[in-house]
């Protein structure tokens, strides 16, 4: 049996660092390749979902139905959605595509969706479940970076947004242990309920 020494540990650490840095070069080189059409299609759905969420937060804030702490949380979530849009739109732009903007989509909501706190929270749960499922689906099926990485990171944030609304609606801050991903067709169909 070989004894592990500090010098041996440092040598093995240096070797691991070299291997990792080489893997990083390969990963960066792979990221430079054009994403497949399926990844770009998912990115377009995610951009539309982010635009929906941004529009929802704008309307929810304009309704002025919440006190200061919740309003602050809604503003922060709206900021998050803008950053999500920027990240995913960047994937499309890097592939030479022009992402949709808020001017490209007309969103519609159920009657009186912003009439009171309960209706806003109910709609917030539905939209954030769509967001979370879409991002989980993209993280699960995307073939290339950075979309896979971005989708996983954004899904974590969307779960926080969903917790905000389940807390408001159901007084339950934590959701299910294993949220379900939405494949691209399910995400697109769910998004269709809010677009015209």
What does this protein structure show overall?
The structure is a single chain. α2 runs parallel beside α6, α3 (68-94) runs antiparallel to α5 and α4 (117-141) runs antiparallel to α5. The chain has 196 residues and is mainly α. It is built from 6 helices and no strands. It folds into 2 domains: 1-32; 35-192, Ferritin, core subunit, four-helix bundle (Ferritin, Up-down Bundle). Helix content is 70%, strand content 0%. It is globular.
Topology overview:
Layout: H1 6-31, H2 37-62, H3 68-94, H4 117-141, H5 147-170, H6 184-192
Question: Characteristics of this structure?
Answer:
196 residues; mainly alpha; Ferritin; 2 domains
């Amino acid at each position: 049996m070989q004894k592990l020494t500090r010098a041996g540990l440092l040598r093995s650490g240096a070797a691991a660092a070299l291997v990792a840095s080489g893997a990083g070069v390969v990963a960066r080189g792979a990221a430079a390749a054009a994403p497949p059409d399926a990844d770009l299609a998912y990115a377009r759905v995610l951009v539309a979902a982010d635009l929906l969420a941004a529009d929802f937060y704008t309307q929810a804030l304009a309704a002025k139905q919440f006190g200061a702490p919740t309003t602050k949380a809604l503003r922060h979530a709206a900021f998050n959605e803008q950053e999500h849009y920027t990240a995913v739109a960047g994937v499309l732009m890097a592939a030479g595509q022009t992402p949709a903007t808020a001017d490209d989509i007309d969103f519609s909501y159920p009657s009186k969706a912003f009439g009171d706190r309960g209706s806003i929270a109910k709609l917030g749960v539905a939209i954030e479940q769509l967001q979370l499922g879409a991002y989980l689906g993209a993280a699960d099926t995307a073939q290339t970076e950075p979309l896979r990485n971005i989708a996983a990171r954004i899904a974590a944030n969307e779960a926080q947004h969903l917790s905000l609304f389940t807390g408001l609606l159901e007084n339950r801050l934590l959701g299910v242990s294993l949220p379900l991903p939405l494949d691209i067709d399910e995400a697109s169909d769910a998004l269709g309920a809010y677009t015209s």
